[in-house]
Write a structure and sequence with these properties.
Layout lengths: L2 E12 L2 E12 L3 E5 L6 H8 L7 E6 L10 E4 L11 H9 L8 H8 L14 H13 L5 E5 L7 H15 L4 E5 L3 H4 L5 E6 L2 E6 L1 H7 L3 E7 L4 H4 L4 E7 L2 E6 L2 H8 L6 E8 L2 H8 L3
Parallel strand pairs: 3-7, 3-8, 5-6, 6-7
Antiparallel strand pairs: 1-2, 1-4, 8-9, 10-12, 10-13, 11-12
């Protein structure tokens, strides 16, 4: 089995304040893994550390079994894209390709990144979403085997974000390993097969969405009602209640206990919906202080 990333007991502090503590995980080559956590949880620090941009305090890191990563195998897309004045997209892409011994063929790179219509445009005239696509093409120009995407869709509108993730799916066929951070967990459900969650500088979850659901057996009960919030607070198996303008969301950990007591309110509620928790709501459990 080939591991793209191996992290063993890694810790990092800034000014004696722990940012990462005893982090352990392995990522197989070809996996797409989401790295999740609150702002300031240590996600970007971990990516910088994996890319050998900062030093760790303790522990070991191996990238494709090497303690010193081969930068020809790695691509990094940060949150901020750089605009180059009076440089056309095709010039920027070819410049990036020129730095590598085995770059992706220009035509294939352009197709996979979806920038065919942008080649003759100047990079400083692109929209935010267009610039992100070009930045992604530049990251992939060297035909990397491991790619870090740090908030790659920040600043994009919904359509641009959806299009970007479709392009990532195109690269999946090449067997590339992706480690992705994002503020949009609902998007990651479509692409990531595994999730790492960091909270309070520790890795608190490592597994699939299904495993996350198994460890947090809750459902969401949504409805509209004129009843006061207190009517539902004493119902069995209700672990959380959110109310906004008579729109309720109840988090329930056992429907068999909840439903018999809730039935008496059915004629006073509307738009009843019972749904499994999504990734965003599941994450909250792992991010509680």
């Amino acid at each position: 089995m080939t591991y793209a990333i191996e992290v063993n007991n890694v810790s990092k502090s800034f000014n004696k304040k722990p940012v990462l503590s005893n982090i352990n995980f392995k990522i197989e080559a070809g996996e797409i893994v989401a790295l999740l956590g609150k702002n300031g949880a240590g996600k970007t620090t971990l990516i910088r550390l994996l890319n050998d941009l900062i030093t760790k305090d303790s522990g070991t890191v191996k990238i494709f079994e090497q303690a010193k990563p081969d930068r020809n195998l790695i691509g990094v897309m940060s949150q901020n894209s750089v605009r180059l004045d009076r440089v056309k997209v095709k010039e920027a892409v070819n410049l990036a390709r020129s730095f590598y011994q085995n770059p992706l063929p220009f035509e294939k790179l352009v197709e996979l990144a979806g920038i065919e219509t942008l080649l003759d445009k100047f990079t400083d005239k692109l929209s935010g979403g267009q610039l992100k696509r070009v930045s992604f093409a530049i990251v992939m120009a060297g035909n990397p085997k491991l790619v870090y995407l740090d908030e790659p869709t920040a600043g994009m509108d919904v359509d641009a974000r959806n299009e970007f993730w479709q392009k990532i799916n195109g690269f999946k066929k090449l067997g590339i390993t992706f480690l992705i951070t994002s503020h949009y967990p609902e998007e990651l459900e479509k692409i990531a097969g595994r999730y790492l969650i960091i909270n309070n500088h520790r890795l608190v979850f490592d597994g699939s969405l299904e495993q996350m659901k198994e460890q947090n057996q809750t459902v969401q009960v949504k409805f509209v009602s004129q009843l006061e919030k207190e009517s539902f607070t004493e119902l069995p198996a209700v672990v959380d209640i959110n109310e906004n303008n008579n729109h309720y969301t109840l988090k329930v950990n056992d429907l068999n206990l909840f439903l018999p007591s809730f039935i008496k309110y059915l004629n006073q509620v509307e738009n009843l919906e019972i749904a499994q928790s999504n990734l965003e709501s599941l994450m909250k459990k792992w991010m509680e202080d």
